[in-house]
Write a structure and sequence with these properties.
489 residues, mainly alpha, 20 helices, 0% strand, globular, transport
Length: 489
């Protein structure tokens, strides 16, 4: 097994183009290609655009917060490590295990989705065979090397980006009547109750949808520990990703809303399993593109595979980092000669496979596991914002100057505070409609991630007697050896 230092030397091979595409690809998926239609149907063009714009601004602040910490302390454990150092070790412990669990379950969900997508072409092939084949493919990509993961994710993400660009060009030409033979204009923005449908409650509900669509942008923090030059590549990637995501999402939704009225039944109830009612498919069909559904089905398949690939990488690296920090058994902190954390990869693959099999043998267990991981991404975002707020305050309190930071987030403390508030709103608003009707079983499923996080935090605090760190006792050392610390204890 390779030592930790050897691991860093072997795996610091992710380039800026990899980081940009990993974060970009992690957030452009079925949320944009399919679920965006439901957002427009629910809140109208104005409500959908406002919600995605609001979440986009929050994500920008989160990414700059993560960027400031990741360039100063580039570690694969990312926000779990930051929370344990700047807030409370118990919070870092809970964030790490929650995040690993979330992505391990997401891998299972994604491989189950591949079977649904592939049935478009191969309806006679059993779904479990297709899913296990793709799980094996994702495992092989990740076991080869970190560069293998980075290259695969780069090309899968590039397919999605090109699709969005083509869609935007086709959409704009369709709006102005250059394609499709009819000048549509922007009449759908004032059609019936447009642009805002359902008022603020409907718009707030779309905030949750938008939040799920942007999940995955925090992956840039996970990749920081394996970037060739984190001090230059991370800031550059953050800047590129923010503008690309914001422009892609806002422009795509604006185009869809202009071409398809919010009352269209094709937008209602859109799901990742029905490519036929993807807004992208509908727009391509409108201009007479032959095989539009087939093309979009292929794109959606790459999106699902990209998500599974990113999920396998993120969960493996988080478990590896926790193995090094003592939050997980030490075996998970080991790597092979190529710098791949093999024990962590095997454990993550096993959980993904078992979760997927539970969907065949017991759908109730599967649904419960998926629900339990639902809000974990938002809890990670909240952890990032709180950690950065504490990091910057401790940095100044201990006599440091901002000029010492390679990259520093602008608008502090407004950025992290705004991100904290919006993260809480999204978390609490996950299923707020069930509260007045006292639908306790539904509420328990929707908010299950929160009690799980609390239980993990309290368990670690009681066992290790941790406390909220004071600003003057926060460890701001750029690098520290957890194994050495453990031996000293």
């Amino acid at each position: 097994m390779a030592t930790k230092s050897e691991h860093n030397q072997v795996t610091r091979s992710l380039k800026t183009r990899h980081l940009s595409m990993i974060a970009l690809g992690g957030s452009i998926g079925t949320g944009l290609f399919v679920a965006s239609g439901g957002a427009i149907a629910g809140a109208g063009p104005g409500g959908a655009i406002l919600a995605y714009l609001g979440i986009g601004v929050m994500v920008f602040f989160l990414m700059t917060s993560l960027g400031e910490m990741a360039t100063y302390i580039p570690v694969s454990g990312s926000f779990s490590e930051y929370a344990s150092r700047f807030v409370d070790p118990a919070v870092g412990f809970a964030l790490g295990w929650n995040y690993w669990f979330n992505w391990a379950i997401t891998v299972a969900v994604d491989i189950a989705t591949t079977a649904i997508v592939m049935h478009f072409w191969l309806p006679a092939v059993p779904g479990w065979i297709i899913s296990l084949a793709f799980l094996a493919l994702i495992f092989i990509i990740n076991i080869i090397s970190v560069k293998s993961f980075g290259e695969t994710e780069y090309w899968l993400s590039l397919i999605k980006v090109i699709t969005v660009i083509v869609f935007l060009i086709v959409g704009v030409l369709t709006i102005f009547g250059i394609l499709g033979g009819q000048h549509i204009g922007f009449s759908n923005y004032t059609y019936k109750q447009s642009p805002f449908v359902g008022g603020w409650p409907a718009t707030l509900s779309v905030f949750v949808v938008a939040g799920f669509s942007f999940q995955g942008t925090e992956l840039i923090g996970i990749t920081a520990g394996e970037s060739e030059t984190p001090e230059t590549s991370i800031p550059k990637a953050i800047k590129q990703v923010f503008w690309r995501i914001l422009l892609f999402y806002i422009l795509a939704i604006a185009v869809i809303a202009a071409i398809i009225p919010y009352t269209s039944p094709n937008l209602l109830g859109a799901s990742a399993s029905d490519v036929a009612i993807s807004p992208f498919t509908l727009v391509f069909k409108r201009i007479g593109l032959a095989g539009a559904a087939s093309v979009m089905n292929a794109v959606i398949l790459t999106s699902v595979l990209s998500s599974a690939n990113s999920g396998m990488y993120a969960s493996t690296r988080m478990l590896w980092a926790m193995g090094n920090s003592g939050f997980a058994p030490r075996i998970f902190g080991k790597t092979n000669s190529r710098g791949v954390p093999l024990p962590a990869l095997l454990a993550t693959t096993a959980v993904g496979a078992l979760t997927f099999l539970s969907s065949i043998m017991g759908p109730n267990v599967y649904q419960l596991l998926v629900a339990a991981s639902g809000l974990t991404g938002f809890l990670a975002w909240l952890g990032i914002a709180v950690s950065h707020y504490r990091f910057r305050r401790a940095f100044i309190a201990q006599g440091h100057k901002l000029s010492e930071l390679v990259y520093h987030a602008k608008w502090f403390p407004i950025g992290p505070i705004l991100a904290i508030i919006m993260s809480l709103i999204v978390i609490l608003g996950q299923d707020i409609a069930s509260v007045p009707h006292f639908q306790w079983s539904r509420l328990l499923i929707s908010y299950m991630s929160i009690p799980l996080f609390i239980v993990l935090t309290v368990w670690y605090k009681v066992k290790h007697k941790t406390h909220l760190l004071k600003l003057d006792e926060i460890d701001l050392t750029p690098h520290r050896d957890h194994r050495k610390e453990a031996k000293q204890k």
